[in-house]
Amino acid sequence: MRTQARSKSAILYGALAGLFTLVLAWWMVFFARQGSFLIERMEKEGIQLSEQQAASLKGFANESTRMFLYEGAFLGLIGIGGLWLILRSMRREVLLHRQQRDFLSAVTHELRSPIAAARLQVESLQLGRVPEAKVELYLSRTLEDLDRLGRSVNQLLEAARSHSGRVELSPEALDLGAFIEKSTQKFREAEGARARIECQLQPGVLVRADTDALETIHSNLISNGLKYGGDPPQLTVRVREEGSFGVLEVQDSGSGIQSEEANHIFDPFVRGQGDLVQRRPGIGLGLYLVAELSASMGAQISGHNVADGNGFVVSIKLPLVKRRETDQ
Q1: For burial by CB atoms within 10 Å, which of 50, 86, 206, 232 has the most?
Q2: What is the largest CA-CA distance in the chain?
Q3: Cα angle: 8, vertex 23, 40; to 5 degrees
Q4: What pLDDT does 1 receive?
């Protein structure tokens, strides 16, 4: 859809530029002939001009042509620029409207679905319709639905705080590898054999970061990878030093993203157009929160497909703690 929109915009801008060039060229030819045209008309009226007068008249016509060329080109560029700004604003309004519509649809589904599922399971337990052997299963599923509901609500609250600039961070020096290992272990225990999460962690990578923000970043990256990282999902978490940064990378083994979506993956309420993405629950806030929290800590973020086309990588570069700080 975005590719088609860009193609239509390029055709429209090209047509406008071509039309403007043709009109300007026609007026240039018209003005360039004004000197000769006036001389011919005067000769038809019986007015004879000397060579000096004819040359002076043609010079005046040429001067008028140049003035029109400069002023016309300037005004034309202003007109095309103004039209481009109008069309750009209109396209942004359409995109914003679409994002709001998709956001409301996604939020409605994300909030209603776990509530309905949890309610049905609790009612079944309350009415005694569940065999004794499946009571634990129903309770665990209810907890999963409530956890999913809680995550959605927390993402919305975090996004609202981040957008309003009310995020309060307390950066401190921490061992990035040790922190990520401990955080990843929670997902390993929760997922069990349903997913494979491999860690490649360089020891002693000291960065300055807020623990809560880093926990949210890591959690969102892992959750995102588990959703779209293949079936069964396989993730690789890496920590290493790179120049003056400590790098955290989370790579999945999914199908990656389409090239036209690459510039929008960190925008709020934006989700991919692939079938797998549409089948997975989500409201399009996970990577947006990762980007916002990373920026708040002075970190750099990027995302790209794996070179061999097998997976997607999100990379966070956090500033390293200077060695003399740790010695004090």
Answers
A1: 206
A2: 117
A3: 165
A4: 46
Residue 238's pLDDT is 94
Residue 131, both tokens: 């065999």
pLDDT for residue 324:
46
Work out the angle between the directed axes of helices 211-228 and 176-191 (0-180°, nearest 10): 40
Amino acid at 327: D
CB-side neighbour CA atoms (13 Å) of 43:
11
What domains appear along the chain, each with residue ranges and CATH number? 2-97 (no CATH), 105-164 (1.10.287), 172-327 (3.30.565.10)
What pTM did the predictor assign? 0.57
Residue whose C-alpha is closest to residue 322's, from 241, 237, 249, 248: 241
**Average pLDDT along the chain, 328 residues, taken 10 residues at a time:** 57 71 71 66 69 70 71 73 79 74 63 79 86 87 81 70 66 92 86 85 92 87 83 89 93 77 71 54 73 87 80 91 57
Select from 24, 3, 6, 9 the least CA-distant residue to 71: 24
Written as one letter, the residue type at 36 is S
- CA-closest candidate to residue 272, choices 259, 314, 230: 259
Alpha-carbon Rg for the chain in angstroms: 32
Q: Scanning the structure block, which residue is given the tokens 């790098």? A: 247
Q: Cβ of 22: how many Cβ atoms within 10 Å?
A: 10
Among 175, 174, 199, residue whose Cα is nearest residue 185: 199
Instruction: Report which DSSP code applies to 208.
Output: E
